[in-house]
Amino acid sequence: MFGDLGFPAGEAANLKLRSQLMIAITKLIGSRGLTQSAAAQLLGVSQPRVSDLVRGKLERFSIDTLVAMLGAAGVQVTISVRPFRAIA
To answer: What's the predicted TM-score (pTM) here?
Structure first.
């Protein structure tokens, strides 16, 4: 996905993981029917941070921050590590 856009493999993997975490948080907010203010309180961040999140401002969030937000919401995050697939 991000590799197709010309990002190096390591950066593409980081961007993909951050986008997946952001999608998970956005889905959590929607499934619980939370307002941005209520979501901010649950996630331990400000309402403008939630706005940035739901608008997909990927560059404003680190993996650590996103994992912490999910943890604050009571969600366990599991990360799988495996070698990159070789491209022939």
So the answer is: 0.83
